[in-house]
Amino acid sequence: MPDKDPCGLITGIAKKMCENDWEPEGGGTSDTGGGRITGGASEHVKHLAETLIKTLRGLLAPKRAWAPEETDHPVYQQFLWLGQHLAIAILICVIVVCALTAWQGAPRLQQLGTSTGWTLAAVAGMASVPGVVMLLNQAVSSAFTTAFDSNQSTLLEAISADLDHGADSGNPVAILVIISALVVALAFASLVFMTRQLGILAFVLMAPLVLASLARGGDTSAVRAWAIRLLGLMFAPFALLLVSPFVQMVSGSLVMDAVLLVAADALMLRMIFHGIPYFGPKVAGAARNFVESRTTNPLARAVVRAGSPDFYEQENQPRMPRTVDTPGRAAHQDRGVLYAAYGLKQKQRSSRLTTESAIDKSRREAPRNQQLLEARRSARAAAAQTTTPGPRTPRRAQGRGPAVRTQAPAAPAPGLAPVRPPNP
Prior knowledge:
This protein is mostly helical and 424 residues long. It is 63% helix and 0% strand.
């Protein structure tokens, strides 16, 4: 039985060297073999860069979304059933109200017709949302590919061309820089992909519940807010168009391409900050804190700060126990109503919490008040340390009479002797 080829499982340059007893192909010197190995490594690095660019393009504007593409999707069917039955229930309530108030005539008849028409439109819209979102996502993906990877004047295609024909395409440091920039951009693109896909999925599933609100009478405020946020999610990748005018200015250099990628990273983070509803600032702030806690590079910190600026959050007031009147205050208010019926005016008294209620409120708000107090103290201490005392100015004499201004004597005219006052 003949022996198996020992070089059969090896590919590339290593296979040729194995077949030549581990000598360079053609009997060349070791320098030639080293150059071929270096050339092979360079090709592998370029292939890695091309793979990163392809993955980056697919993450920023994928051709398929996670949202359901058809109405018979098992997940979307549950929300569709709920939205349709909710719209029908609202229509039935409107019909009952219009029937009970039919004596009002034309206004109720107009309300009945409006509610019926908007209900039919809402039910039809619920069934068309998945298809519309799918077509819109495909259009966005095609437009993004055209804008960023269609010819030599686009960013991703310019990077691919500079890897082969750039001025520093053979420089290992430049290739390392562009690979690092692509990896960082890939991380931000992955964050954009996850937030966009989850947001689009949530808004598509929410569509039947939002459209059902039209059945009451055609109030489109909720539908407009829902559509604006969904379209913002869909068109968010086009924020990267801001770097397109600079592609031709820096083409031919991998290092300058890396600078554009860094600017694109800041834009992607800002895209999350403004484009992702509800949770965008939180996600962008978490990414900024992640970067700042793991690097001291001022450039990296400046990039994430440009993408996720400082902001204050405003929350809803927590649900507090309801406030009720004491028996004495309730009786006092009713007594005022009785006096008013007789034409008498009762003196109004300001309200305040009872002692027990005030103590309970203070205990509930004590942690927050303590944190605010400590923050104010630390801010005052920091301001006192940075403030340097200025030179002291002498105090003015405290006189009882009005202050008298003294005027310096005027200078004599040129050519005249100064007039001296008479001796006493």
